Amino acid sequence: MAAPGDLQPVPGPPDPPPDAIVVARRVRAPAARIWSVLGDSDRIDRVLGLPAAVYAVEVGADGLPVRVGRARQGPVRLEWEEAPYDWNAPVWLFGERRFRAGPVSSGGVRVLLSPEAKGSTRVEVAIWGRPRSFALRLLGPFLRWGTVARLRRLLDEVARASETGPQALERARDRLDRTGDPIVVNDDALARRLADARDVGVRADVLEALESALRTWPEGRVSPLDVGALAEAVGRPLRDVASDLLSATRAGLLELAWQVDCPVCRVAAAHAEALSEVGRRVHCGVCQVEYDVDFADHVEAVFRPHPSVRPHRLTVRCASSPAFRPHVRAQVR
Fold it and tell me: Which of 143, 170, 204, 285 is the most exposed place for a label (fewest CB within 10 A)?
């Protein structure tokens, strides 16, 4: 018997149902590199054309909290219960939804990355959904064809980028994350605010990188702004770039906000426009805990584009994605 606190082996994922759509290919790259793209069920849902969702934590039939997603696919209303997904990075990901409303009763995804000889990896993605009606089952072959085509395009892009290098991989992630959410930038406002930022002393190379980010980065990287990536792009210390971004807020190019991170799940539990608005206690809807806020450990400053320059349009397809919890290497229920 293992002693308390000992790490236990992580089991493998469940098998997908026999009628699942499965697309596989061999990629000449290590699993960790491929996981940076495919270890994100939110990104996979975007590529498959699933709609943006609104999530809430409710009380389930068993009296326990359950995450509920709601969306619309054209005229069709969708509502589902989404249990926490399971994963073991960078090897596998598995998740299922139980639908309360919509054309299917349940659906799921499994990603499996299996190392092979000479640094290659066998990549397998399985998708499934169980139709409620006989008519929808008759349409199954046509629906499968579209899903297979999207998955093949996804794996083709992942293979090309993974085999090329880190920069190509980052560009591929950005392209995929823009799927379904076109970037809207007010060119006149951006030009004015960039000029104002130069006047208040923001470095030219930081402004150039920031303009590129505002025009090309997907919403998940600008709201809040990925300051680390920006600092890496210009080759300057993070502290120097953050100082420039503070100056950019005075020019109206960016906004400064405050994010309160949950000490348990380490994702954002609350946001505030001003530090004075941060409460002494915060409730985390993800892990259902309430905690005292330690300003040194739990509160961080974040930057986002001023809405006159680029409106905030952050959307989520899958709230259970491992990508939202990069500090968690493995999670198995």
Answer: 204
